[in-house]
Amino acid sequence: MAVLSIKYKFPENFWWGAATSGPQTEGRFNKKHANVFDHWFDIEKEAFFNGIGPNVASNFYNSYKEDIKLMADIGLDSLRTSIQWTRLIKDFETAEVDEEAVVFYNRVIDELIKNKIIPVINLQHFDLPVELYDKYGGWESKHVIALFVLFAEKCFELFGDRVKNWITFNEPMVIVEGQYLYQFHYPNLVDGKKAVQVLYNLNLASAKVIAAFKQSKCAKQGGEIGVVLNLTPAYPRSQADEDVKAAAFVEDFFNKSFLDPAVKGEFTPSLVQTLQADGVLWESTPEELMIIKNNTIDFLGVNYYQPRRAKSKEVAWDIEKSWMPNKYFDDYEMPGRRMNPYRGWEIYPQALYDIAINIRDYYNNIRWYVSENGMGVEGEENYRNADGLIEDIYRIDFYEEHLTYLHKAIQEGSNCFGFHAWTPIDCWSWSNAYKNRYGYIAVDLATQIKTIKKSGYWIKNVAKNNGFS
Ligand code: GAL
Fold first, then answer.
1. pTM score > 0.85 for this model?
2. Pocket of ligand 1, candidates 422, 426, 436: which has the most ligand atoms within 8 Å of its Cβ, to mutate?
3. pLDDT under 70: residue ranges of the chain
4. How far is Cα 395 from Cα 440, in angstroms, rounded to an integer?
5. CB 3.0-4.6 Å disulfide test: which of 10, 195, 327, 420 passes with 317?
């Protein structure tokens, strides 16, 4: 029998999985508290594409069994989802739990394990309880960090016997950008000084959760904890000094601000210098900085969708204006760049190679995995063929291109142990709601009927062969 040779073969035990989150899939069924997005939808439906909010999402609360079965059917071996703080906890100050929620998350975890899918559990996916924002200013407050640690400890205690892979935060930088700078997360503030404090507080919160994890039984039995960062490599418009400087600031502020403390336990000196000179540096204590120093991650998750391109400022920053990171750069729209027109994001697969090599060379070659990568497309119903199959060839091409660059970096020694697509089943995406679909599996919103797309059959093969040709 001819042996099929696989051109791009991945390391043994490589994860072929997918990622999603509680607030984007479960729906609000039986949930006793609102997170910031639930609340935003309750007060301003028009802010969401087609007025669709998180109330039903993809109905995972009710259909988790069937959904997990479908994930197993397409060969996924691991799934990242999140536990919602606003579901699990009844009283935020004491971390008293809601028993119904405990039952639900236990069932989800058991069902995953039964289907041979490794559960990777994230503790925070943009779903801050709105009460904690109203009462304390959310992530601006160190008291809220303490409450988040209580919630995390509860999770380790309740589920740590079966969940061995934990994540503290998904894309903490997006909280800073969305909530405090660029107005795409409730309450849509524009406040550079607060943004910088929140950036620091989120790093501290992650380190404190890691410290708590180390004390848990789960850690003592070999469990591990990491963080998921959206790394958007910053490429300068040109090699001219001014452009290179602009891109270096973007790198410091949007990538290294979380990557350095998470892996090395320290903030980037050039970032600290700039923020200090501008009078906007965060408030910290020596004790807190020691906590950050001593509680770095076991592994890293990298979400990659798009690069950033920067150039020097066209018009000098008006110093009368309050501080914003944009003081130091302009975004650069590179002529001829390849775009995903639906999401408005550039497609640049080479960046995944650059990220991998950067981790290898400057971040101790830490063990890492691609925790999200994917392509959101509008109107996928148009690609349904006569047999009812959505032929999402563009998605398969997108993944193969990214995986080719990832494979090359692994060949060159980058310590990557897995690839998670965003997302297994079409899910709700914040203010874009169900505009762009990302799943291997489609959901019909009217009926909640779920069907495997062509890419679902593709990943099944890739997982089976541990690679592709
Ligand atoms: C990521 C985020 C996900 C998902 C995805 C696609 O930034 O982590 O929650 O929404 O974008 O839009």
1. yes
2. 422
3. 1-3
4. 9
5. 327
